Structures are given as C-alpha cells and as structure tokens.
Amino acid sequence: MPEPLLRVENVRVELPIRRNVLTAIDDISFTIGPGEVLGVVGESGAGKSLTGAAIIGLLEPPLRIAAGRVTLAGRRIDNLPSEAMRRIRGREIGAIFQDPLTSLNPLCTIGRQLIETIHTHLDLSPAAARDRALALLREVGIAGAEARIDHYPHQFSGGMRQRVVIALAIAANPRLIIADEPTTALDVSIQAQIIALLKRLCGDHGTAVMLVTHDMGVIAETAHRVAVMYAGRIVEIGEVAEVVAHPRHPYTRGLIDAIPRIGGRRQRLRQVDGAMPRLGEIPQGCAFSPRCPEAVDRCRRQGPNLLPAGGTEAACWLYDKVLLPA
Amino acid sequence: MVEPETLLRVEKLHRAFDVSPPALERLLQRKKRATVKAVDGISFTMRRGETFALVGESGCGKSTVARLIVGLYRPTAGRVIFAGQELARLRSRKAAAPLRRRLQMIFQDPYASLNPRWRVKRIIAEPLRTHRLIVNETALRERVVELLRQVRLSPADGEKFPHEFSGGQRQRISIARALASNPEFLVCDEPTSALDVSVQAQILNLMKDLQRQLGLTYLFISHNLAVIYQMSDRVGVMYLGRLVEIASAEQLFASPRHPYTRLLLDTIPSIEATGQAREPVAGEVPNPIHPPPGCSFHPRCPFAKDRCRRERPELIYAGGTLVACHAVEEGRLPVASGMLRTG
Amino acid sequence: MAEGVFTAAAPVRLAPKLRRVFDSDLWWSFRRSPVTVAAAVMALVIIGGAVFAPWIAPHDPWDPASVSLLDASNPPAWLEGGSWTFPLGTDNQGRDVLSAILYGSRLSLFVGSAAVLLALLIGVTLGLLAGWCGGLTDTIIMRIADVKLSFPAILLALLIDGVVRGMLPRDAQSEIASYVLITAIALSFWVQYARTVRASTLVERNKEYIQAARVIGVSPAKIILGHLLPNVIGPVLVIATINLALAILTEATLSFLGVGLPPTQPSLGTLIRNGNDYLFSGDWWISIFPGVVLAVLILSVNLLGDWLRDALNPKLR
Fold it and tell me: What is the CATH number of the domain that holds C290?
C-alpha cells in the first residue's frame, strides 16, 4: 500500500462571525494516493469547496483551520507561513475553479499568464518557458497554439477557457490538483470533453486529483474513490463503483435514488424530505438524523465517526458492530 | 374520445437581438450592424394537459422562446397563438389581462425571482390583487393559505421574507405565486437547474402532482435530459435558435434521429456509465452572430455533405418524429440505439 | 369591545418588533462602535436643542423688546465680566449667544433636511425613470445631469438665488428666502441620487422578480413603486445622511457669503458671519461658539452616515 500523497486528519474549519463561532467543517479525515482521483460530492453548503480551499491554503478570513493537520508527501502544510504556502501552491498543488471567466485575468494574454506561472515555479529561460507554454496548450487540445497563445481570454469560448485554466494548473507539474466544480458552468457536450481531458492528463502525468462537484454522474465517470459530504462531515467514503451500486449511508442512498435517470418506467422520483441544515442550525448528534428514515435515539444524541461498512466506510450507527446482533 | 384541444400554437417564430457596437464605433471603425437570431423560425403546437419540453445547450434560444410565449419579448416575425389569441397583438394591458391570467411562468433562479423586500404572503397574493380576482381581505388571506398548503409549505410561512427560505422552498413559493390566478398553462424555465439533486426530486414530484390535480399544461425548458425524460410527454430539441427534432419522449430516447440529439444523449455523464471511457464529439456551439450557412450543425456533424453546407433543412416526418436533417431525409443515417433498452 | 381588542393588540405587536430591532445585527454593530455612539449622542443633543429651542432657550434673541444694548458684548459666563444669565455671552446688540445658537441650529437643520429631502425626491424620481424607460428618456435625463454637474454647487445656488432676488420685490424676498435656498441647494444635489438609483434600477430591472411581475400583468407604475423603489433606495439613504451635513454646510456658506438667509432669520452660518467682524476685536465668542456647534453637528452626522453605510454593506457583515 503506497504512502498516500495527501493526508487530511481531523481537520476542523471554523467561521467566527459577529456573535459566535460556527463550525463549517467538522473533523474530516481522508487520504489521496498518488495518481488517484478522489471525488468529493455533496450538495450546496456541505463544505466540499471549503475543504479544497483549506487544503490549498486559500481560506478567506475569518474562516480558519481550527484543528487537525494536512500533510502533503509527508510534509505538514496547514501551518506554513504564507510565503512557503505560496511556493507550494502551483508547484505541488494546482487548482481549477468553477468559473473559467473569472479564473483568468482579462487584461493579460493567456500566453503571459502561462509563462508567468511557469516562471514562478520553474527555472527556465524565457524561450524555454514559451516553448513549454505552447506544449501545454497543445496538450490540452487547443488547436493553433502558436497563434492563440497571444490571444486574450475573451477571445476564447467557455470550454476553451477551461482548457487554458487546466493548462495553468498543470504548468508546473504539480502532484495534486484540486478541481472545484470544473465542469458545472459548461454545456453538457463540453463537459464530456473536459472530463475526458482531465482523465487523460492525470493518467499521463500521474497527477492526483481531488474533484469537488455536486454532479454524481461526473464523479461516477472520473473518480476512483468518492467521499460524500453532508453538513461539514464526510458521511461515506469508498470505491466509486461500490458506493454507487450499494450506498450504505442513508443520505447517500437518498442522494443516489433522487437522481433522475433515463430508462425504465417514469415514476415518482424518490425524494428525501427536508433540506440540509445551514451553518449554525446543525442539530446535535448526527446532522442527517432529522431527515433520516432509519434514525434512532442514539443518532440524535451522538454523531458517529466513519465506521467500516463492508466495502465502504459510512458514518452511521447502523454499522456499529457493537449494536449489530452477533 | 374527444381529441384534446390545441392550447398553444407557435408559427414560424423569430426573434432577433441587435448587438451592434455603438453608432460612433460603427462610424469610426467601419463595423457593421450585428444581430443575433436567438430564435430562428420555430414552429410547434401543444395540447392541453401535456408536458412539452424544450431542450438544448446554452445559447440555443430556449429561454428566449419561453419569454416570447409569455409576452416578455415581442416576436420580430411569426406568431404565438394561445387559446386562439395572440398576446403580442393586444396592445393595452387591460386587453391582455384575461390572457395573462391563464398563462404564467416559473423562473430558474430561486434567489432572484422573489422580491427580497416583500413578505411571502404579499408575493403570492400579487396576481390576485392585480387581476382583482379576490377583493375581500379575509378571502385573500384564505386563498394564500390554501396555495401555501398546496405547495407543501406551512401557513405561517406567509409572514416570512424570502431570504429565510432555502432554494427549494423559494421555488415552491414561486410555484404558489404562479398558481394563484388559476392558470391553465405554465412555462417553466429551468425550474430545478439551480437546486440540489435531492431538492430537485421534491420539486419535480410536486410539479407532477400539481399537474395531475389541477389539469395543468407545462412547457418545460431544461438542459438536463434526465429531468426531461422524467417529466415530459413530448420533446423538442433546439440548436442555435432552430428546432432540429420533435418527438415523443419515448421515441427520442429510444431512437434519436438527428445527429445533434445523438450527440447530446451520448455525452451525458451518467451513473450507469461508471468507469467507462467515452470518446466525446469535438467542437463547440458556434458564435450565434455568425452561424454556419445551411444546416447550423454541419461543422460538428459526422454525416455532413455538400447539401448540408448550402441548404437549411426543414422539419420533416421521419418514422413518427419530426426531424430537420438532410441525412435523415436521404436515408443516409444508420439507425441509432438510444438510451432505452427496448424489450 | 372591539376597540379594547384593538388597543390591546397594538402594543403586543409592537413589543416583538422592538425586540427585533434591538436584537438585530444593526443595533449590535451600532453599540460596538464607541465613535458612532458618541456621534449619535452629539447629534441628538444638537438636534434636540434645535427642535425644542422655543422652550429651552433662556431668551428670545429676535424679540426686540427683550434685547437691550446694555447687555451688549458680554463675555461667556466663566470669564471676567460675564454672568450666567448669558452663559455663552452676548453679541454686539445684546442678544444671547446661546439662544441665538439654538434658534440658529433650528433653521440650519430645517433648511438642510428640507433641501436633502427635495433633492431625494427629484433625484430618485428621475433616476427611476431613466433606469426603467431607457432609450431617449434615459439619455435626456443623463445629459441634463451632466450639465448640472459642470456647475459647482455654490455657484449654482448663487445663480438661482440671484435670479430670484432680481425677480421679486424686497419684502417678499425675506419671506420666501428659506424656500429659495432650499430649492437652490436641492438642485445642486439631486444628480448623485439620480445616478445611483439609475444604476441600481438597471441592475434590478432584469431580475426575475421584476419579470415575474410583468408576466403577471402588473402595471409599470406599480412595478416601479412597489418592486423597484424599495430595492434601490438603500444606498441612497446612506448618501442622503452624509449629504445632510453637506447641505447644512452649503447653507452656512451661502449665508456667510450673504446670499443665504436674511439677517432677521439667522442660521448658524449667518451667526458666524455676524460675529466675524468682531473676531479680532476681542469678542471671539460671537462667532466661535456657533462655529463649534456647526462643526460638531456636521462631524457627527457624517460619522453616523459612515456607520450606516458600513452596517448596511452586506459584504462587510
């Protein structure tokens, strides 16, 4: 079992606001192996984007990491001074965000942005940097790279811009990429192209990816393992095929059942009543208990940790061996 | 059996937007006027009680069609005939009022579609007050409570402000407002696209129940094919302002004909395709200011021939569906197997 | 019986509303900032004094009967030669400076607030029209605004004042002087409201709740007043609060220059002007005290406006 590339242990992210302190992410732990694609799926407000931001050190104050540690290739990165973190950002960890329109500086040509990134992290001559930029553009599938390298972002379409953003992310050959909803703002037919591109690049370079999205379909096609988040905690984590085919946690089950599919009889969609609690309204015990069809008293008193559930791990008392009859 | 009446007829609908640079720039830089043909000759009909879906990617014009039908835009050519009357021809607000009562709309963004400064009960009562359907305050209050219950919210929610609700609940409020004047026809512009998956299921189920209870007719706009599969009877596929295929939902998903429809169905990331590798079709939607001549899909179409580059295809009957494709007309297209496994 | 229910219900409904105000984030942020609280206290003191002037002023300085030259040029009470009958001293005619300040602030505040309100009325209306109608209406209104902006406020006020003076007989002038002044100041200020409201209107106009109202068939007037207005007025209120200080200052400047209020209705500015002549002959209290009051009033209103702007800014919350 190879040493994991990224290790997140018991991380808690807090948000102090006017009168009290809210817990945005509550004690999450997971690992990402080298070259692995981990999908982090959850609905809005679950804390998946915050997780990515916490790892890469881009939490906006007053948000802060209040507890736990993040280690990259054995080296602790959550407590680094900002200068050291800046060097890691880009060189070891790359990032792709949701909106390609705002990820690129509209006033600089994409060539300049690429070369600037390359210069920041790699020691290359200007000519070599430009060559590398051209090679990157070709690798992400932008035709006519020699001409387009001097174009501005507004001269590209949405899908093309996202390819440029991917090129920027892999420019310094990072070992891990955090992709936060990379395909959500794109059309369906372009989504497929971008997903295929990400898969191919990560296969070729051996880059690990933390893919954050709300779209279970994208995760099913791209990821090796998936972590399901709810109200700031991970409720289930395991191999994608297993989680999709046999979800263990009641929330995961509800989530997968609610997804409309093509094929089969058109009947009522299975729905989960209620909504995810907002920050500051998270109930005691298991955050999902008010909506859970299988909740018992214990669920309302105490929140479970991830427990092995035969194939995956689920944070649910249903899988507590102590409770199950022998 | 009585044939259900045709409630909506759209005939050769056109809507163009002027996106020219300002006059001074045109003068100094010799730029030409530019127009975007957002809707470029759309025709279809809808029967009472059915759900007709318009599907397509961003920029295909489906939202513009929705707004043309409810009268937010005027057509540049063509007609929209609802229950035998043309909304665009009615000049005064008073003349249009009876028609507007029967035709309402639900919007995509649950956060922008409710006035943040109004209480929910005032929002829902607005159609009733505008059309003076109920004048007595007590009766008005009762009707608002009835509507809240119908969308599965509690009567006490009427006193709150929109920001106190989640996205799904706001969409319920929008639905309650749309139902206040007892309409027959609802235009739903991507009503669940901004919602989480589990909330989407609640809203779609609610909409199906309401349709059954109240005998509503839905024009359902979406880019999500799976949602359309669940919700609609018939589907129209749009590309760059034109309808390329109209078929019943079963036929569309079982045997899609138009190459673009096939592309759409092929590229949906789905759970069933876990771990599968897919080879997606290249290309992107072209710039609507300069659409390709002839068939607008031909740059991306694997079956494109010379005729496709010159001549715009019309919708023709082909095996029970309407398709606008030369390759289909000429019998060049192999039969595709869609997403539904028959038998 | 019904009345009893009614009156009993009213305070019950008020209490939770009051509680909501004191519980709210706005109040909390107010209490948290000592500068703002101090500013509010100062402003309240001056405004209170101005409003209740007829009742709390020790003398009526503009009643010729109660003024005697024998009391002229008394220094403030704590200095040699002063007395507590005239706590802040008297001017060259024997009028009590404290009372003059109280009545003067009254007039200054009246003119200032009325000017701001009139400017709001003009500016918000024109801004809404320009934003909603667009096209030619928008262009015309905005070009008028541009022309107006090319005139400095004082110059414009002088212009209007001068024209009206020329048109009216002398005695009518004093009567309506304050109204002319209010109009002149309002006409200098309306543009920023119009611009802000127009910008917000352009943004809100395309939002779905406005489209929903149009689909329902609501009349444009009801949409503008019922839907748009409440949503665009926020930033304007903040500007208006800060502008109140500027309006008072403008009025003071105009009065100081002699083209504002007539000497029979002196505002703080006029008082400063009157006392200016005696500044270097040793009777400093005649213009310094009104000056201090004016400065404190403007400063506190300004600080309150700053706090309001920050408190209402959702991004800073």
Answer: 1.10.3720.10
Q: Are C105 and C297 in contact (CB under 8 A)?
A: yes
Q: What is the mean pLDDT of residues C220-231?
A: 92
Residue C87 lies in a domain: no
User: What's the rounded Cα separation, in Å, for the pair A42 and A255?
Assistant: 9
Closest CA relative to residue C100, chosen from C91, C113, C112: C91
**Residue C314 has what pLDDT?**
55
Mean pLDDT of B284-295: 83
β-pairing, A312-314 vs A233-239, is: antiparallel
What confidence category does residue C21 fall into, taking pLDDT thresholds of 50, 70 and 90? low
Mark out chain A residues that contact chain B at CB-CB < 8 A: 43-44, 157, 159-160, 187-193, 195-196, 199, 214-218, 220-221, 240-241, 244-245, 254-256, 258-263, 266, 268-273, 275-276, 278
For B175-231, write each residue's pLDDT tens digit.
999 999 999 999 999 999 888 888 899 999 999 999 999 999 999 999 888 899 999
Give strand ranges (E) for chain A. Answer: 6-16, 21-32, 37-41, 64-72, 75-76, 93-96, 176-180, 208-213, 225-230, 233-239, 307-308, 312-314
Shortest Cα distance from B85 to chain A (angstroms)? 34
Number of domains in chain C: 1
ipTM tops 0.95: no
A27, A42, A305, A314, B3 from A275: Cα distances, Å? 22, 13, 22, 20, 42
User: Is residue C260 domain-resident?
Assistant: yes
Cβ–Cβ < 8 Å for A98, A182: yes
The predicted pLDDT at position C16 comes to: 55
Report, as an integer, the average pLDDT of C207-224. Answer: 93
Domains (range + CATH), chain A: 6-230 (3.40.50.300)
Least confident of A209-223, B34-48, C91-105: C91-105
| Cβ atoms of residues C132 and C205 within 8 Å | yes
Residue C36 within a domain: no
CB contact under 8 A, B117 and C218: no
Question: Which residue has better confidence, B331 or C226?
Answer: C226
Residue C19 lies in a domain: no
Q: Look at C317 and A19 and tell me if their CB atoms are within 8 Å.
A: no
Angle of helix A82-91 versus helix A110-121 axis, rounded to 10 = 120
Residue type, B169: Q
Q: Kindly indicate the confidence band of residue C8, based on its pLDDT and cuts at 50, 70 and 90.
A: very low
Q: Could you tell me which residue, B127 or B87, shows the higher pLDDT?
A: B127
The strand pair at B185-189 and B103-106 is best described as parallel
Minimum distance, in Å, between the CA of residue A17 and any CA atom of chain C: 8
Q: Give dist(CA A71, CA A149) in Å, integer.
A: 36
Structural domain harbouring C125: 104-317
CB-based contact, B108 to chain C, within 8 Å: yes
For residue B269, the 8-state DSSP code is: -
For C169-189, the pLDDT digits (tens) are 766 666 677 888 888 889 888
- Interacting residues of B48 by C-beta distance below 8 A, sequence separation 6+: B4, B5, B6, B7, B184, B215, B217
- Find all residues with CB under 8 Å of A180, minimum gap 6, and list them: A49, A52, A95, A96, A97, A98, A212
pLDDT in tens, A170-205: 888 899 999 998 888 788 778 888 888 888 888 888
Name the H helices within chain B. Answer: 23-29, 62-69, 93-102, 120-130, 137-150, 167-179, 197-214, 225-231, 249-254, 259-267, 306-310, 326-329
Question: How wide is the angle at C-alpha A302 spanned by C-alphas A298 and A304, nearest 5°?
Answer: 100
Backbone angles phi, psi at A308, to 5 degrees: -65, 130
Q: How far is A80 from chain B (nearest CA, A)?
A: 35
- Cα-trace Rg, chain A: 21
- Select the highest-mean-pLDDT range: A51-65, C6-20, C25-39: A51-65
Contacts of A18 in chain C (CB under 8 A): 25, 28-29, 317
